[in-house]
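Hey,
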Amino acid sequence: MRTRFAFLFCMILLANMTFAQKKTPEYTKAYFVYEKKSNYYIDEKGAYADTLLLKAEFPNLKFSMVKHPVDSAKTIGFIPLDKFSREDKKELASSVYHTTELIEGVHDFKKNITQLTIRRDDANTKEVLNKYLDERYHKFKYKKTIDYNKQKIFIKFPSISHSKKFDTELKTIKFDANSKLWGYYREKHLNLLLDNFVLLKEGLDTKIVPGIIFPNNEFGVEKIATIHETIRLQSVTFE
């Protein structure tokens, strides 16, 4: 009897040890990087973009349909550079500048707070603005803090700071009927109601997001695409 009891005890102990070894380790912090890119493509000939974007930002300019200069499988809207006025070029440069950023994030699981550092320091964008739009490029950095306990977002620019409540910033994803990983959220821009594409990454923690807060995501964000920009997750590490 003792031998049998000892055998059972050893088997239970071994099973517990095996379970403990397979248990997912608990992390204290997640470090992640997102890259945000403008959906405009600009070269010496002109500006290429989705027709909806061109209609929204330059309603008084006519565009033609052409093959995308990089991806010939795509047909896209095109406006020659000589059709842009000086003010139009300023507006185009501003759009590209504000939608090209590097987003570096750290989420503290114990504090339930995400710290984001957003940088505008892109060599290619600088070249495009200088060469084709005659605009200077200024490096810029600001910070965003997402406090999930206080339900607030704090934004700190070099010269001013302000905060926003979660309930004014939440974007609800309308998921595809057959998936919990992708869908759309709606956003109003000028007089347009736009559907922005969202792709989640299975197994990724819900707090890994590029600064946009969703109340119904089961996983973190891999990609967001709007008419203005595309945001992609570049890397994730844990501590």
